[in-house]
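User: Predict the full complex structure for these chains.
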Amino acid sequence: MSIQSLVRDLKTRNNSKIVMLVADGLGGLPVEPGGPTELEAARTPNLDALAKRGTQGSMYPIAPGITPGSGPGHLSLFGYDPVKHLIGRGALEATGVGFKLTSKDVAVRCNFCTLDAAGNIADRRAGRIPTEESAPLAVRLRQVVIPDVKIFVEPVKEHRFVVIFRGEGLGGNVADTDPQQTGVPPLDPIANDDASKRTAETAKRFIYQARKLLAAEPKANGLTMRGFSAAPSIGSYEDVYGLRAAAIAVYPMYKGLAQLVGMKVIGRPGTLEEEIDVLERAWADYDFFFVHFKYTDSRGEDGNFNAKVAMIEQFDAIVPRVMALKPTVLIVTGDHSTPARLASHSWHPVPVLLVADTCRPDGLTAFGEREAMRGGLGHIPGVYLMPLAMAHAERLAKFGA
Amino acid sequence: MSIQSLVRDLKTRNNSKIVMLVADGLGGLPVEPGGPTELEAARTPNLDALAKRGTQGSMYPIAPGITPGSGPGHLSLFGYDPVKHLIGRGALEATGVGFKLTSKDVAVRCNFCTLDAAGNIADRRAGRIPTEESAPLAVRLRQVVIPDVKIFVEPVKEHRFVVIFRGEGLGGNVADTDPQQTGVPPLDPIANDDASKRTAETAKRFIYQARKLLAAEPKANGLTMRGFSAAPSIGSYEDVYGLRAAAIAVYPMYKGLAQLVGMKVIGRPGTLEEEIDVLERAWADYDFFFVHFKYTDSRGEDGNFNAKVAMIEQFDAIVPRVMALKPTVLIVTGDHSTPARLASHSWHPVPVLLVADTCRPDGLTAFGEREAMRGGLGHIPGVYLMPLAMAHAERLAKFGA
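Assistant: Here is the predicted structure of the two-chain assembly.
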């Protein structure tokens, strides 16, 4: 029996409020040996004050050594085993543009490509055509008609778009059509199991019609398909936790991930301050709030240590507004580490700070990686954060007599 | 393969002695933010001296966030996965009055209730009649006779008693007969699976005869049944660990839990000092001793911080007598936390101290929650304590070549 099944069985309801503040890619590394990480270098008086009241821990989203993508990273924070509940690439791409997948959907990542006169791939990314040119082409593909299958085509960025097939009996196990090289034609979509034969057939018909619609394009006259995936079947926050959950995010990907677990995406904030505006306005209407801050990750990905430090300080600055709402439980963490030094996601654990009146103090006085390693939560998998939040919100009954 | 199966395969025998001292509900919380917990506030010179020799850890009986009942809490300490080996309510009640369940038993929690002239429940607890009145009524129900089923009836407290049906083919999956409301008759016992049909039929006959025996009672003229449960099937300490195990406890519940795993309950102590008398006298006859101290939990449940501190000091005072016996391995911990501040069991981890000549020192000098968080055992599930005890007792062979 998984920890999530236990929590599902033990959950109770009350008027408590839980806030999960996620600074994407929060964990970092020193630039110089022995130096501070981004979080340690940042001036974070508000988080440090909370560290004195709360309990810290060192959290690994998946397992020690495993670098998470955004999908698994967030699923772990939300309390879903990210290895069991794998979100396929297509489903993640669809989710990333805010598309709400149903159980009858198969989503596919598509690339526009350039085909030569012989039908061989000349450019796998259609010269990375700008989004302004590619988006109308993706919209044009909505003209494709296949009996008994509903088709959605959503532009993504540059040469990328996503196709969703909705219908009965569509399995998600179809091989990629991108041959990963030029000078050869795209592959046919081949079903890897019987349950996916209809999907492969549907994809073949889609490609046939799409190529007619794109035939006159100078660059984007073909397409390849990758990452066929059915929507993950996953219990909602209401089912699992009995929580009315709201998600506040700027970027579509994180809104989509929250929707996958049944959170309601609220507001249309463009900045962190606006996200907190949304939080304040919706405070009475939900039990749980996921607030996502993107730019700690972005500056980490840029490899810009100082810019990431500045983003962490900006994140720290909104903490008093959150605390003024008097959440029963506040969790501050990230979905993974993104050390500027590596300019990418990494496997390093993420510091986590849990604040509640029922915290056992761990004697720490600042929020940071070195502190978190010695924190009272220990070194824990991310899937335990929601059970801990539920416990501190006194929303879990005793297990056994 | 579970850790317990590994230990079962690797166990060896020698003359070592293991003592597990359990201060029930040991873990606590500060009253004032940043203040000491009960254990930290207590003067515990003997435990602190042991902390210098031993290794501490922060132990969660079930999983982070999960508050254990006494049953799962102790099973975890004894090394049995408490989620896999769930003890049903009826079995726990029988165990709690010291009844020794066999594999042919189904135990049921029963309430005396008051029925009106129409047979509807007027009072679900028979006016909470005092134990002096209810116990003889429970004993009277031993007159019930059902062919091929042996019946045991044990008084518990006030309106509560427990019935055990012993026979072949008695499944434990029968629905409660308590309708959880007044003004309606008790429900019939209904089997939820084929294997429990005979149990439901037996229960029906028991109720029929019992009502005749109780008909003239002014308050307790009826009964309801809840928590039908078969005895859990669980390996004994001898099977799993190769240990001749003794349990020393004052309260029936803990004696019962120890009996479930095949420990021999020894002595009839009434105080902690008398428990240690029993320990001293039985020292030569067993390999493992579980010594249970109840009052740390009781004072925690009362919400009385200072009284719990006093109980911890009383617990500390017997430590020299235990150490004088020169146990190979001593484990000091609790089955869960019971912070006086919450006046209930809680999900917070429990400090654990393991003392053996083979301990790797962790540099700590006092026993307490803040120390335990930084201890050499790390943050570990309770089921690892017995494997660690076995290892330090040099009772486990190498795994693999």
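The mean pLDDT of chain A is 96.
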